[in-house]
Amino acid sequence: MSGEALVKYFFSISKPHTIDPSDLAPILPPNIIYSEENTATLILETDSDISDDAARYQVLRECDRLDFLTGEKLSPMLTRKEQNGITEAYSGIKFEASPVKRLDPAVQRQQWDQSPALAAQLLFWRLAHEPRLDATSKIRLLFLIIENADPGKSAYPKYHDSSSQPNPKTESKLLRNLVSHQGNKMREQLEHYCRFLGRRPDKSFDPTDSGDWVIISQRLHVVEEVAGKIIEQAITKRYQLTSG
Predict the structure, then answer these.
(1) pLDDT tens across 198-232, in order?
(2) pLDDT at 2 over 70
């Protein structure tokens, strides 16, 4: 923070169940403080020239990171802003943020400048795990994470043998293509993949066909695992800091 004029943003969050408050300070930025006074709150202290949207972004990306690491849906909601002794209240802008898991003790304060794509990838991950989302939408969102990290064709080995499982990244792309290109003529690789799935290769994905929903739901885990590994590698951990 450069200037002397500071502003504090207060975000109410769902109280975490698996994260000890003492574990948050070492992994949050120095200007974001967790407080349980009255209610669970994240307090962002920053320069006064920051916009409300930029303040929300800083807090939301940290909550998205904790969501990915633990499954905790903190759902931050901006409640008030304090500056020069004046308090500005907000009506409540909530971010809708899966079993939970323990926070990895190796996780450190995130080095955001070393992983510029991570905030967007975490956003896609959170959106893909909204409870009301269907499998086709989940696949599209999760593949955005993969495509963001590996946009080149060389990252997706061609698939020509329907008797064997595709490379996971290739399968992720083929799944995305299958659910996204409804009504279009199948390309050769997608035809091979349909045969691997045990479905007709000349039939595009039909959202009215229960059998198609069963098939893609059974393969959703492939896209999720590939996307999860990409994010996991971008999370700052103790061994990365010591080795770097």
Answers:
(1) 999 988 898 888 889 989 999 999 999 999 999 99
(2) no
Give the Cα separation of 137 and 141 in Å (integer): 6
Q: What's the token pair of residue 207?
A: 């959202």
Per this entry, what is the length of the chain? 244
Q: Position 188: which residue type?
A: E
- Tell me the C-alpha distance between 72 and 93, whole Å: 19
Cα–Cα distance measured from residue 144 to residue 208, given in angstroms and rounded to the nearest whole number: 25
- Edge to edge, what strands does the sheet with 86-94 contain? 32-35, 41-47, 6-12, 77-83, 86-94
Q: pTM value?
A: 0.79
* Beta-carbon contacts of residue 197 (< 8 Å; ≥ 6 apart): 215, 219
Distances (CA, A) of 137 to 2, 134, 185, 204, 207: 42, 6, 21, 17, 12
The amino acid present at 213, given as its one-letter code, is W
